[in-house]
Design goal:
- This protein has 291 residues and is α/β, with parallel strands linked by helices.
- It has 3 domains: 2-138, Rossmann fold, CATH 3.40.50; 140-198, no CATH class; 200-291, no CATH class.
- It has helices at residues 2-15, 60-68, 84-102, 114-124, 140-164, 183-196, 201-230, 244-258, 262-290, and strands at residues 43-48, 72-75, 106-112, 132-138.
- Helix 2 links the parallel strand 1 (43-48) and strand 2 (72-75).
- Helix 7 packs across helix 9 (262-290).
- The longest helix is centred in the last third of the chain and has 30 residues, at 201-230.
């Protein structure tokens, strides 16, 4: 057990990096051991990657080490970005094929990050507890905390900078007296993050993608044309065939946005509308204070 736990930790660290980019993709039947096992049940290991991962998320050297110890190995190829239910269903099909193709007696799953959520769904909801001998879910909470730490601290600076420039409520330009971080902006973001935890993960992920498409990609295209027409800020670069590339990109992003569900678009519209109302309220309060 201690050996497997150590192996799980090593694999989780390796899963944070990409593989060697080899075009040799494993099939759902996995890869066979390179050395015969010492006897006993035929055993396989399934390496379940996390969000936005692939079969290359785990280092091939780790796979080779498991093969050398007499184990069959499967690196899962579930959808990189999708709901836990969809990913778990895809994982179930791979588990079935992996066991049947190699006539395995038992399999162990080592899951990294969101792969742990997929595995939990696989066993608890889809009923695969009799086919999975053991599960190692590593660094799920650590990954969530690390992402929360980095994202909230980073994005709180945007709220702080807007408040500092007079484009947001002045309450959010306050810094901690000794540590120097924007505590009020940080409190706002953590409260909003806690609120969206009550939504299904699939909606949160899709919503975040839609927001990025509208604000970062489509908004950036419009901002480029506005700055170009303004002529007050000389740009240090030139776009070949201007404005054709940006227009082609705009059409592509709009078509992608059109595939979003109506309910999600309505939710995004409500979020943007609330932001617009807050901005108008702030503007009105600032005007009243200046009079």
């Amino acid at each position: 057990m201690r050996k497997l736990t150590t192996l799980a930790a090593v694999l989780a660290l390796q899963a944070c990096a990409t593989g060697d980019g080899s075009t040799d993709k494993q099939a759902q039947s996995g890869v066979a051991p390179t050395s015969p096992s010492a006897g006993g049940p035929r055993t396989g290991f399934i390496l379940a990657h996390g969000l936005a991962g692939s079969i290359d998320s785990f280092d091939p050297a780790i796979v080779s080490a498991l093969q050398a110890d007499g184990y069959y190995v499967l690196r899962d190829a579930v959808p990189p970005v999708d709901s836990v239910q969809t990913r778990a269903t895809a994982l179930a099909a791979e588990v079935d094929d992996f066991i049947a193709s190699n006539q395995l007696d038992q399999v162990h799953i080592i899951a990294h990050s969101m792969g742990g959520l997929d595995t939990r769904e696989l066993v608890s909801v889809l009923g695969y507890g009799d086919r999975v001998a053991s599960i190692f879910t590593v660094f799920i909470i650590w990954t969530c905390l690390a992402g929360l730490f980095a994202m909230t601290l980073g994005y709180s600076r945007i709220v702080y900078a807007a408040a500092k420039n007079g484009d947001f409520f002045h309450f959010f330009d306050k810094l901690h007296p000794t540590k120097g971080y924007p505590w009020s902006a940080l409190m706002l973001l953590t409260a909003l993050t806690a609120f969206f935890c009550f939504f299904p993960l699939k909606i949160v992920i899709e919503g975040a993608v839609v927001v990025r498409i509208i604000v970062q990609f489509i908004g950036q295209i419009f901002a480029l044309h506005i700055v170009h027409r303004d002529k007050k800020r000389p740009l240090p670069f030139r776009m070949w065939l201007y404005p054709l590339p940006s227009l082609v990109a705009l059409i592509g992003w709009v078509l992608l946005l059109a595939t979003t569900s109506v309910n999600l678009l309505c939710l995004i519209a409500i979020i943007y509308g609330s932001g617009l109302l807050i901005f108008i309220l702030r503007d009105q309060l600032s005007g009243s204070a200046n009079r």
